[in-house]
Design goal:
Elements lengths: L2 E7 L5 H7 L5 H9 L3 E7 L4 E7 L3 H9 L2 H10 L10 H4 L1 E3 L5 H7 L1
Antiparallel strand pairs: 1-3, 1-4, 2-3
Amino acid sequence: MPRVCFTVQVDPQRLTEYRQRHTPVWPEMLREIAASGRRDYSLFLRDDGLLIGYYETDSDEASAAYLAGSAVAARWEASMQEFFVGLGGRADQSAVVVPEVFNLDQQLADL
């Protein structure tokens, strides 16, 4: 099962408002994320604006394709675009994926 970690940069001057927009996320967007096959989805936000996201999915390609075709996701991403620095498009399609280099469960299973 793919585990995906990604980063994007939030404007440090807008962290409070960014956090408020996620409390709560639109119910229809929550349902679209789940319908795309993403599970255990979390976002972490540092004080300098570095946003780190993590989720698990059976197929990251299928999940991304589902969200790319979702009108709800398009509206959400458009409403959030103003918070990000240095992106050339939607945050969900422009985030930098961070390669996994260690997984405790996998290494224990390999023993």
